[in-house]
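REQUEST ID: PR-0412
SUBMITTED BY: lab tech R.K.
PRIORITY: routine
TASK: structure prediction, single protein chain
INPUT:
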Amino acid sequence: MLSKEDQRRFEQITRQLRESDPAFFARLDSRARARRGRWLMLLTIVLWASLPAMTVLAGRVAGAICAVVLVANAALMWRFRRRWL
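STATUS: complete
OUTPUT:
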């Protein structure tokens, strides 16, 4: 946790970097976005893989709810795929 002064200084440095070298800042931002997208994709795959076990252990209603949520998640990821990858 940064102190308020350190946080203010960090934001100032970030702002200066963004203004002075926007190409470098864009590269860093896209790498972080891609990393986040990979983790989100991995989480989605793990949740899809656990769906049968959830259905067996928690019942059909819980499995159906989980499936609907995962289908919505997959649709959103497909719709905004350029942001994640």
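NOTES: The first helix runs from residue 4 to 20.
REVIEWED BY: pending
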